[in-house]
Lipoprotein (Atopomonas hussainii), 140 residues
Amino acid sequence: MRLITLLLAGVALSACASTPIPPLAEGQVRVSLSYHPGQLLMAEKLDEQRWPDGRYFDLAPGAHTLESKLIFERPGGGSLGQESEPVQVTCHYRLHYADFAAGQRYRLHGQVQGWRGYVRLYDETGQVLARAKELRCGAF
């Protein structure tokens, strides 16, 4: 069942992936998303408004709040040496950053360490600018 959900999410994103990401408008800011294989990070909301494309955020310079979700699998909780199905976990994050600069490109990166997911904002040089706050996380 979890595999089917991941496959459906992949199909939905492949439809988006076939549409090229538009060029960045002059004076705007682009926040691209990155994640490791077997995981999926999607753009959800920009300043409390639903964002139409899960692959990136485009915004005006200044302060903004970005919401995203990270989907990943973790090993199931088998008992006494028995293996069980992996568990699909969905975590929702909110990140506020006050200094988005015009013409700059940023990267929102999701990753999993152990049993937890993390989302961080990086600048073009790879420096961490902000860490997202986990809103909720679980096997939804």
Summary: The beta strands are 29-35, 40-46, 49-50, 56-59, 62-74, 87-100, 105-113, 116-122, 128-131, 133-138.
